Amino acid sequence: MLALRNADPLVLPSMLLCDFANLAKEVANLEEAGFRALHLDVMDGVFVPNFSYGMTIVNAFHQCTKLPLDVHLMMQGPEKYVEQFHASGAHSITFHIEAVDDPDSIIQQIHSLGMAAGVAIDRDTPVSAIAKIIDKVDLVLVMTIKAGFGGQSFIPGLLDKLREIRELGATNPILQVDGGVNAGTIGACVDAGAEWMVVGSGVFKQEDFAQANRDLLQHCSIDQS
Ligand code: DX5
Ligand code: ZN
Fold first, then answer.
1. Can you tell me which atom of ligand 1 is nearest the CA of 151?
2. From the CA of 203, which ligand is nearest?
């Protein structure tokens, strides 16, 4: 997963809106369209009001593709399930800082299984909540909406958190954004320092995935003005 870190921005399709009745075909189309990793949103109906899917579906993706699977756990008590998500094929696991009591311990657990560890901060959580662990994680996911549902509108002010993270002196973690990212908003994310962009509706509401990928990447050039 971390091998995907390079100078180029990376777009990760969020699979919430994919056609689950034709999973293998959807994934093959995304591969052909040039996407290089998939983002899987696990929601437990407790941490967020919505319920999505668990490790059985993560494993179904794993059976369909060799693309790295970036698993975003929107669940309370994620530490109880790290091993099962690993066994199901996850390459990285991102937990929410709001959902754990002992972030150090879950980071260690994820690393001990050879996965990349990410921490997510929801809309109302300040960057200070992750200051102590920022150098221990591989990925920081800044939500650009309130976590829980696809298709919400991007909140531009939340991009300030990316700058705050860099101001903390954190150079190690990859900066990822998630929520309302599309061809109209992705440029601002890259300008603010985001490296990996999660895109749901902005891919799945398009007829042609390859065109969607090209459109998104085209808007990623950094504004030098
Ligand atoms: C929402 C999820 C997102 C969501 C993004 O809480 O974490 O990954 O699927 O969907 P869009 O791009 O439609 O906002
Ligand atoms: Zn997500």
1. 13
2. 1
**Does 224 have pLDDT greater than 70?**
no
Ligand 1-lining residues (CB < 6 angstroms): 14, 16, 39, 41, 72, 145, 147-152, 178-181, 198-202
Establish whether 41 is a catalytic residue: yes
Q: Which of 141, 149, 176 to mutate to test the pocket of ligand 1 (most atoms within 8 A of CB)?
A: 149
**101 C-alpha to center of ligand 1: Å?**
25
**Cβ atoms within 10 Å of 77's Cβ, excluding its own:** 15
Question: What strand order describes the sheet that includes 174-178?
Answer: 10-13, 196-199, 174-178, 139-143, 116-121, 92-96, 69-74, 38-43
**pLDDT surpasses 60 at 225:** no
- Confirm whether pTM is higher than 0.90: yes
- Provide DSSP, 83-132: HHHHHTT-SEEEEEGGG-S-HHHHHHHHHHTT-EEEEEE-TT--GGGGTT
Express each pLDDT in 179-212 by its tens digit.
999 999 999 999 999 999 999 999 999 999 999 9
Is the pLDDT score of 7 beyond 80?
Answer: no
**Catalytic-labelled residue, pool 19, 41, 70, 215:** 41
Alpha helices per DSSP H over the chain:
23-32, 55-64, 82-87, 103-112, 160-167, 186-191, 201-204, 209-218
pLDDT single digits (tens) 106-162: 999 999 999 999 999 999 999 999 999 999 999 999 999 999 999 999 999 999 999
What is the Cα 99 distance to its own chain's centre?
Answer: 16
